[in-house]
Amino acid sequence: MAQMKTAAAIVLVLFLSAAGRSQASHTCFGQEDSSECEEDALSLLQWPRRTGRQVSLEAEAERRASSQGQEELQLDEEFESKLEGEADLDPACAKAGIADITEYKHGNLVKSSSGQHFFPTLSSVDHLDLEAEPQSQVEHVLISFHGLSRDVDRYFCTAVGAAKKVGKYEKTLVIAPLFPKAQIKGSEWSKSRRLQEAVSVHWPQPDFVGGADSNNINNNNKNNNNNNNNNNNNASGGSHSSYKMLDELVESLVASKNSSLPNLKKISISGFSAGCQFVSRWSFFSMAPLKAKSNGIPVGIIIGDCSSYMYLDKHRPAASCVPWENTGPNHTCQHFQEPAAAQQEQCPQFDDFKYGFSRMPKKGSYLKSFRESEAVQAEVIDKFRLKDLRFLIGQNDACNCQFGKPSDYETLGAVCVRQGQCCDSFPAPNCRIMDARCPAMLEGSNRLQRGLNYASYLRDFYARKGQFWSPPVATFTGVLTHSFGEMASSPTFSSWVWGV
């Protein structure tokens, strides 16, 4: 542990140097055996005992993020290197018995006044092919969302493998949507005739996590935001947010019960990592799950290992609930309160969207009515507890490996500890793999702790309103720290999706 802390201290000094800050006052540089150095390095970033120096570090991280032109989650260029255009098939596909991914490339057509667009997906069955025979064997749909690296093939193949593992693949339609970074021609994406003249929606920035509008549709529909609202807060027919893409996918599946999927019984939606952030926030705003249920198709929502969550008021876990240590899978939080005035002064953005919704994005069609109407906000909050939301969190996801490329991302926690890269013990403010900004730090010190805190918070929030909601919470084990593969292969995942 001493070696790990020493390495952390050295990393801190190097980061300060890279930021162009003087190290004259940091007397620990090079003193590898100094306990004072270890304590100093950790205290710089300890929450809530934050120093002016820590605030400066966070401000520098925010400045760098803003200079990249990204208002939402930030990524290093190296981390974005594995995107949808990468040629190599993910190893998960070979494990699932998939040799050629092209035959699974399909998509949903999107109606827009600016032309014909589609939302690309990998699907084991094209449920929108009305010329095909009905898929009467399909009883379940499993929709799996990728993370910020947009490695859709991994998430599709992993979900296929999970279905095959429990003998449910033949009865399951597996879908993995893609939020492309760049526009894709339908003729290059799929052999499907209905997509040949279309081009994909796309999100150059990772703001799809927060429901942002597609880059190539919304610009042509700025005047349409007040027309044809779908549900309580959705976009117009021409402007499409990432959240509306999922709404339309769910709606198409429910409608398919009368055609291509006559025996459909349930839809399960899973989100992991940044996909967890996308699905968890979508599940709050969207009315699609409740509409599907009213039409006889329940929608189960499984989220795992989010980097941050959206709180419904200004209460956050008490300081005793967010220690800088691995508090384990049995961690619970019983006390929630507004951050102290000093904390709010140091972190004024703590309740901004996507951590809360005190300040919502000015742009974005899907959130328009929620942003502008307190009555809509009250309705959405009240109906959130009616949805089937479940937490499935990795027991080992208490250590954030800050490696530079995705091939090193899923790795043994012991490797992180040896290299002093465990965010649990050394929270670096320039971290790009786990959100280490001050609003996220208020939620917990690592993904395991944050997920357990948020589940406890939802119980507390609705109890304060005189209502009851206790979403199911479970953890999964494995050798990796952050792995959708281990989540999808866990007994709990199989039980929640297929009832086995």
UniProtKB/TrEMBL annotation:
Keyword Acetylation among UniProt keywords: no
Keyword field: Signal
Region (Disordered): 207-240
Coiled coil: none
Presence of the UniProt keyword Calcium in the record: no
Signal peptide start-end: 1-24
Low complexity: compositionally biased ranges: 215-234
InterPro entries documented for this protein: AB_hydrolase_fold
Top-level taxon of origin: Eukaryota
Name this polypeptide is given: Feruloyl esterase
Organism annotation: Polarella glacialis (Dinoflagellate)
